[in-house]
Amino acid sequence: MRRYWEALANCHKEQDRYDIHSIITPVSRSPREGRWGQMERYIQRRVGYPLTIKLQFQGEIAHILDHSWADLLTFIPRNSLRIVTVHDLIPLRFPGGLNAAQVARFRTWVSHSGSAHAIIADSEYTKQEIVDLLQLPPDNIYVVPCGVDLPRQADFTSSWIEERISSANPSNQKLVIGSIGSTIERKNLAIFPQALATYVSLTGAQPILVRAGGKLQKTLADEIRHVIGANNFLELGFLKDEELGNFYRSVNVVVVPSYYEGFGLPVLEAMASKVPVISSRASSLPEVGGKEAIYFDPQSPEELGHELATLAKNGISDDWLDRAYERAARYSWRASLEGVYSVYDAALDIRAKRA
């Protein structure tokens, strides 16, 4: 949520019709671990944040930027307009490592979204999820997509990322496949061994798979190495925001195999870098990628392998990449902020008519 807030705040202009500021600013540092960290987070959530809202909030509109904190809406003064952004309802579809009590707690938190005057969803898909899973009426749910930062020329400088990939691909003959994000189950990274095996079978060549983000479990990583060779599997770890451009610039294709995404920012980030995208045709991803991405069934590693082989053989036209870039350009953070303002306008208008 830090990136979401900073992206919107950085687009704010002095002459805008709304003056925005944060009284609870998301932080990037990791909280303390262990029992003391748990106690600190509990006190902050149950006492610190509510107290901050009660003592410091004086605005006409209160906007909770993360659905996981929708319960804080109960501490907003009654005469203020309440807005919440729901990015996804993933734990209700894919609990992952969460137990039943944690899922129930998440549902309780996000259910407070029903007390908002307006709800912002990242995608039409997420809007429908809110209707289906929280049983909320669609009338006051507004779709405002996230934005993407178009890369600047200054971002395209030599980096350790390019050097590491080049060392594994000195002749520049191998297809370099990029994958970015967490390793949780819904990301469907287990599709890669069979998909890569299909690619090798069809092409007779071994590709390079470059992972940015969390490291894969050893068993899955070993399966991938067995298929494409140990030197062809690179794990970069977590990247800084300023390193993302170099990651996208260094790969030939980005694969997004997720079962579920509330939006799917890597699709747009790749398009903005003029890198082909092969994406799962699941959840919000086709909505974000449109006709400028290549899609496959997330249950079919063979289909993914086939699409990778086709791309390696035929390439992709500059015209296609230009259209993808133009699509990404339409998803600017400034456009996202203007969309948020439009929701404020609509909610204020509705309240005025009901007064």
Summary of the model, kept short:
By secondary structure, the protein is an alpha/beta fold. The protein is built from 14 helices and ten strands. Helix content is 45%, strand content 13%.
Q: What's the structural blueprint in terms of helices and strands?
A:
Layout: H1 2-11, H2 34-56, E1 61-64, E2 81-86, H3 90-93, H4 100-111, E3 118-121, H5 124-134, E4 141-143, H6 160-168, E5 176-181, H7 192-203, E6 208-213, H8 218-228, E7 233-237, H9 244-249, E8 253-256, H10 265-272, E9 277-280, H11 285-289, E10 294-296, H12 301-314, H13 318-330, H14 333-354
Parallel strand pairs: 1-2, 2-3, 3-4, 5-6, 5-8, 6-7, 8-9, 9-10
Helix pairs in contact: 1-14, 7-8, 7-12, 10-13
Key traits:
Rossmann fold; single chain; 14 helices; 4-stranded parallel β-sheet; globular; 6-stranded parallel β-sheet; 355 residues; alpha/beta
CATH superfamily of the largest domain: Glycogen Phosphorylase B
User: Which CATH top level class of the largest domain fits?
Assistant: Alpha Beta
Mean pLDDT: 92
Uncertain residue ranges? none
Overall tally of structural domains: 2
Query: What is the count of β-strands?
Result: 10
Task: Write the element-wise H/E pattern from the N-terminal end onward.
Answer: HHEEHHEHEHEHEHEHEHEHEHHH
CATH topology of the largest domain: Rossmann fold
Tell me about the biggest sheet?
6 strands, parallel
- Work out the strand percent: 5-15%
Give the helix level as a range of percent.
40-55%
The best one-word shape is globular
Order of strands in the sheet with most strands: 7-6-5-8-9-10
Structural category: alpha/beta
**Helix count, DSSP H or I runs of 4 or more residues:** 14
- In the CATH hierarchy, the architecture of the largest domain is 3-Layer(aba) Sandwich
Terminal Cα span? 34 Å
Radius of gyration: 22 Å
